[in-house]
Amino acid sequence: MSLELVVAAVMFTGVLAYAVLGGADFGSGFFDLTAGGDREGAALRTRIDHSIGPVWEANHVWLIFVLVTWWSAFPRAFAAAMDTLILPLLLALLGIVLRGSALAFRKYAATLGQARFFGVVFAGSSLVTPFFLGATAGAIASGRVPLDGRDGVWSSWLTPTSVIGGLVAVGTCIFLAGCFLVADARRGGEDELAETLRRRTLVVGLVTGLVVFAGLLPLRADAPTLWDGLTGRALPLVLVAFVAGLATLGLLLVRRYAMARLTAVLAVASVVSGWGVGQLPWLLVDEVTVVDAAGATATLQGLLVAFGLAAVLVLPPLAYLLRLTQTKQWTRATD
After folding, report:
1. With 60 as the cut, is the pLDDT of residue 330 above it?
2. 37 to each of 40, 43, 49, 106, 109, how far by Cα in Å?
3. What contacts 149, CB < 8 A, 6 or more positions away?
4. Coil, helix or strand at residue 282
5. Reduced to 3 states, what is the DSSP secondary structure of residue 288?
6. Cβ atoms of 181 and 31 closer than 8 Å
7. Taking Cα atoms as reference points, which of 240, 88, 92 lies closest to residue 154?
8. Which helix (H) or strand (E) holds 284?
9. Residues 229-248: what's their mean pLDDT?
10. For 80-94, what is the mean pLDDT?
11. pTM
């Protein structure tokens, strides 16, 4: 494997991490929004705060990692994407800022009305942010980001592939969040809440699965290069996503929540990996390949050194934080 592909693979690992960890974080906004009134929804909203509170900022480390690697290793492709896709990316950034601010401010709201307002902002921005990120991915995958010059700042991402990408991103985020929350509620002894979350997650899973696989149909005409990849070398990943999704639904039905969480992660990771593998060797589909888009060799080598240092210094604390928040000891200490 070439140096360029190694760097791109590490960068895409960051995309996967953000899709899974950040995705579960974003998806919690749906359950916050549909929790009900102040009294009946209090238990679920408290559980959401408990689940995402320790990690919601740490998850964005992966987004920063991807962006920094992209502009350092593949600067021309990064500049082209930022130029053409400035609108969805700015809207996604606005959503991230509003979401984090609302989550923090809601805890210190002076009145019930303020708490409700910040709750709506938190929930709404939690849903629109993954949509715009998915729409951005759809624009790149459908070949609507030219390497030189700017395509339409609206037409580049208001397309079938981008809309499908946005909807799939929202659905997978909600599904992941549901799987994580139901396991967390069971671990915290809230069996009634876990049962409510189980039913909602089953419905979300069925709808998301239909969107994912129905969304493949328009790709043949709207994103032929991606379609060829998904029905070719990425087909095994598509099948893994299908099987893992079905397994997750089955595990939820029989209330095996810990295992369902793992198969849900596998399903979402396979969907995202299918997109990445499906568009290879292109970085910007039909415009420039990963190898041709790469910057100086010295820069790529320096990034590999930085990756190694990050693996030693950053990954262990993050892994420990995630492990700590998924234990009974953490649940007892914070409940």
Report:
1. no
2. 6, 11, 16, 15, 17
3. none
4. strand
5. strand
6. yes
7. 88
8. strand 282-284
9. 94
10. 94
11. 0.90
